[in-house]
Write a structure and sequence with these properties.
With about 240 residues, this protein is α/β, with parallel strands linked by helices. It has a domain of about 160 residues. The protein has a six-stranded mixed β-sheet with strand order 9-10-11-6-12-13. Helix 2 crosses helix 3. The chain is globular.
Length: about 240
Amino acid sequence: MHLSRSEQSVFSLPRKQAYETFTDKTAGGLIIEAIEPIGEAECTCIQVDADDSLYLTTDYVVTHNTITGAYETTAHLTGLYPHWWEGKRFTGPVTWWACGKSNETTRDIVQHALLGDVTFDTDDGRKGFAGKGMIPAHLMGRTIWRRGSDDAVDNILVKHVTGGWSRVGFKSYEQKRGAFEGTARHGIWLDEECPLDIYGECLIRTATTGGIIMLTYTPLEGLSETTLQFMPGFGD
């Protein structure tokens, strides 16, 4: 990130300050000259009808938090981390959950971001995926389809770089906390804000694996119980 010459950093975290470079000229990128409050306004997450679900906002900044979650989930499932990756790494196949608000939004947003469109144009003529999601088609293994829900996946195997198989299952918050009980998970991706009891159950599922939980959402419900978990000391 290039910043115009300033007396102080725009970041408070040292790890972010380390990436700042100060310059008097543009280098073909964006320059932050000031950060000023402009008030509050209602907002919402959207997804556009594009293969990668990305869209351009004012001043052409590419954004979409769901795609960010899908990318990191794919990196952990496949073990194909980029050379610059400084985050959590797993050395072997993992078990994962990818979750959304409802069965429909989990299928249409979370599943679609990872696996892409459903198709019958496969080598064996069976229902599968064309590989236009974040996970390449040649790394997809056996698929278990969810009963009673058109084209929704219950779980799917994903080839790991070590030669083994990771597994990702799909869940929704409307299934309630009980659906999140059971075996341990290396990681859980929660797309859109989840109820606090489900978040607590996910913490238990990852406690014995050294696993992680990723939440990708805009706090449209304000200072909810879930959001306050990430604001220690607020209101004390």
